Amino acid sequence: MEALEALINWMKCSGGHVGIHDATNTTNDRRKQLQQRIIKEGNLEVLFIETICTDISILEANIALKLQSPDYAGFASDFAREDFTKRLNCYEKIYQPIE
Q: Could you read off the pLDDT of 52-95 as tens digits, one per residue?
């Protein structure tokens, strides 16, 4: 939620008109929490955008990009790939489509 708070602060204090909170919000409960927090501001609106990709080449390219992120700095590439793959599998198990 720290990133969401930073986004809200930017929207309110820096004159932002559109903010993108790019996060893995895989459950309806998580999305509801985000929406309830944003509604408290009174003058912000929420739009959830869901993308689903089954193209293996695109998925592999995204995984390769993620492995270069600060999340995996200093880790062996085999470990990083295995760890991220496990994370994806966990997301898939709890995923709920946007209603």
A: 889 999 999 999 999 999 999 999 999 999 999 999 999 999 99
Q: CA triplet 30, 32, 33: central angle to 5 degrees?
A: 65
Alpha carbons within 13 A on the beta-carbon side of 21: 23
Alpha helix (H) residue ranges in 14-69:
28-39, 56-66
- The token pair at 84 is 């991220």
What pTM value is reported for the model? 0.77
- CA distances to 8, 32, 46 from 43, in Å: 11, 17, 10
For residue 24, report the phi and psi dihedrals to the nearest 5 degrees. Answer: -90, 90
